Every structure is written in structure tokens, then in C-alpha cells.
């Protein structure tokens, strides 16, 4: 049973197509060229593009002045048909008192 893989791979490697590729080394040269191309694209295009986009996002976020909108007690928003089962039952699980109003308005 141990000789089966040896015989099988010997037959595959003796095919004319693989002999032509291995003999000329053209496949290896093309693979090396493609690898080098993608390495250069990654280093000189992708990483700088990510850095520029990150810097742009950071600068734009700093320049915004976020003001809290005025509370308007619409009847269809912030409806509580039953209490939440954590805390006092009125705050959502990810409640932020600076941003999220309660049904009565902002906390502060």
C-alpha cells in the first residue's frame, strides 16, 4: 500500500505538460513576476491608500461639531409597552445619556 503514492506521483510528474513546465522554468519565472507585482502593489498602493483614508477619516471626525438635537416628544417614538428587564426598566441596553433621550426627554 505504501508504494501506491509513489507510483501515482511518478505517473503525474511524468506527464509531458509538467515536464515542459519544469524543463523551461517558465512557470516559475512567471510566478515570481506575479508575486513581485502583487508585493509592490500591496506595499506602494494598498498600504498608502489605507493610511490616507484613515487620516482623512480622522481629520473629518475631528472637524465635526456634534450638537445634540432638540428633543421633540413624538408619540410614535420611544414607546415602552413593557419595561426592560435590566436596570430601572426605562433605559435601553446601550443607553448613552448624552445622545439617547428617554420617553420624557434627555436626562440632564
From TrEMBL:
UniProt superkingdom: Eukaryota
Pfam families, per database record: COX6A (PF02046)
InterPro entries in the record: Cyt_c_oxidase_su6a, Cyt_c_oxidase_su6a_CS, Cyt_c_oxidase_su6a_sf
Pathway: Energy metabolism; oxidative phosphorylation
Membrane topology note: Single-pass membrane protein
Keyword DNA damage: no
GO molecular function: enzyme regulator activity; oxidoreductase activity
Classification via CDD domains: Cyt_c_Oxidase_VIa (cd00925)
Gene3D superfamilies the UniProt entry points to: Cytochrome c oxidase, subunit VIa
Cellular compartment(s): Mitochondrion inner membrane
GO BP terms: mitochondrial electron transport, cytochrome c to oxygen
Annotated family: Belongs to the cytochrome c oxidase subunit 6A family.
PANTHER family, per the entry: CYTOCHROME C OXIDASE POLYPEPTIDE VIA (PTHR11504), CYTOCHROME C OXIDASE SUBUNIT 6A-LIKE (PTHR11504:SF9)
Protein name from the UniProt record: Cytochrome c oxidase subunit
Organism from which the protein derives: Laodelphax striatellus (Small brown planthopper)
Amino acid at each position: 500500500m505504501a508504494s501506491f503514492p509513489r507510483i501515482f506521483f511518478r505517473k503525474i510528474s511524468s506527464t509531458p505538460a509538467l515536464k515542459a513546465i519544469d524543463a523551461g522554468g517558465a512557470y516559475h519565472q512567471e510566478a515570481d513576476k506575479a508575486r513581485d507585482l502583487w508585493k509592490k502593489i500591496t506595499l506602494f498602493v494598498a498600504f498608502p491608500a489605507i493610511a490616507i483614508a484613515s487620516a482623512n477619516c480622522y481629520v473629518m471626525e475631528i472637524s465635526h461639531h456634534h450638537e445634540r438635537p432638540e428633543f421633540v416628544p413624538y408619540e410614535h417614538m420611544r414607546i415602552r409597552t413593557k419595561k426592560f428587564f435590566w436596570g430601572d426598566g426605562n433605559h435601553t441596553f446601550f443607553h448613552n445619556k448624552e445622545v439617547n433621550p428617554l420617553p420624557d426627554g434627555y436626562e440632564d
